[in-house]
């Protein structure tokens, strides 16, 4: 039961930060690596129980923390009515994100021509959490599609490195790093287009942030090191 104990402890501590988005990424990545490693049925049931418990804790956290509850309410309002609730208050950030994306259209306004990044988006999120929305405004649907396809390509290459890894450790490292970064990017982009509530998760390689960039580059370095010793060098 060591896997369950370790995952549960780490997830609980991250939840206390509080950081629900990072907790989801850690649990999902760990669980996928666990399945690839050939985990037992008992551990699988235990892991799913932890994920279920964390989901309930996340719901409780959303209720207890006003800002989380506001994000969830804004999301469900957009989901079921197609409109942002309280666009001048709690829904202001999502409203500005959607304005930027909508004004970008297919081809965008042009590189560096975003209006939303000049004081409309909250604080400095135009360079962090909401950068993908700014990219969609400047480069349009076409530019956003290129970024999404780039992540699909990264996923394919990362999993290919994992499949051709020389040993089990290399396989798990490559899989874990690939899933971690892709899932992080997916959550960021999904939040920026209203598919999930705003999470504050950065988009690797794109969003501003020193510590995030350092950790991301360290993960890429490990992934490249594994690829150096793959059984298929092509």
TrEMBL record:
UniProt superkingdom: Bacteria
Main location: membrane
EC number, as in UniProt: 2.4.99.28
Record field: transmembrane: 20-38, 45-64, 131-156, 177-199, 205-226
Keyword terms of this UniProt record: Cell shape, Glycosyltransferase, Membrane, Peptidoglycan synthesis, Transferase, Transmembrane, Transmembrane helix
Catalytic activity: [GlcNAc-(1->4)-Mur2Ac(oyl-L-Ala-gamma-D-Glu-L-Lys-D-Ala-D-Ala)](n)-di-trans,octa-cis-undecaprenyl diphosphate + beta-D-GlcNAc-(1->4)-Mur2Ac(oyl-L-Ala-gamma-D-Glu-L-Lys-D-Ala-D-Ala)-di-trans,octa-cis-undecaprenyl diphosphate = [GlcNAc-(1->4)-Mur2Ac(oyl-L-Ala-gamma-D-Glu-L-Lys-D-Ala-D-Ala)](n+1)-di-trans,octa-cis-undecaprenyl diphosphate + di-trans,octa-cis-undecaprenyl diphosphate + H(+)
Pfam families in the cross-refs: FTSW_RODA_SPOVE
The UniProt record lists the keyword Transmembrane helix: yes
Entry membrane topology: Multi-pass membrane protein
Compartment(s) of residence: Membrane
GO process annotations (BP): cell division; peptidoglycan biosynthetic process; regulation of cell shape
Molecular function as annotated in GO: lipid-linked peptidoglycan transporter activity; peptidoglycan glycosyltransferase activity
GO cellular component terms listed in the entry, alphabetical order: cell division site; plasma membrane
Protein family according to the UniProt entry: Belongs to the SEDS family. FtsW subfamily.
UniProt-recorded name of the protein: Probable peptidoglycan glycosyltransferase FtsW
UniProt source species: candidate division WS6 bacterium 34_10
